[in-house]
Amino acid sequence: MTWGKTNFLVRSRDKFAQNGLQVAVIDTPSDASGFLPLRRSTQEHLEDVKAVAEFLRSQADVPVWLIGTSMGTDSVAYL
């Protein structure tokens, strides 16, 4: 894996999972275009992230925590 190798959350996702946490790493959607930082405050982006959170919640009845780094902090702040 070369993508995300310097990002703590991406690099540590397997360690989190090995310790019983469910982990989803969300990147830029393949159909995204235009100025991506603006996309992070759209209803479409909100629905995408909600779908991931709902899937994780369907796997186990536990709280879902959103953590972002870099531009992901904008997504988490908006959500």
Written description of the protein model:
The protein is mainly α and 79 residues long. It contains four helices and no strands. Helices cover 49% and strands 0% of the residues. The longest helix is centred in the middle third of the chain and has 17 residues. The radius of gyration is 13 Å and the shape is globular.
Question: In summary, what is this structure?
Answer:
The chain is globular.
Record field, number of beta strands: 0
Distance between the termini: 29 Å
Summarize model confidence as the mean pLDDT.
Answer: 83
Structural class of the secondary structure composition?
Answer: mainly alpha
- The poorly predicted ranges are none
Number of helices: 4
Biggest sheet architecture: none
Q: Output the helix-strand order.
A: HHHH
Q: Estimate the global geometry from the Cα principal axes.
A: globular
Instruction: State the helical fraction.
Output: 40-55%
Residues in β-strands, percent: under 5%
Return Rg in Å.
13 Å
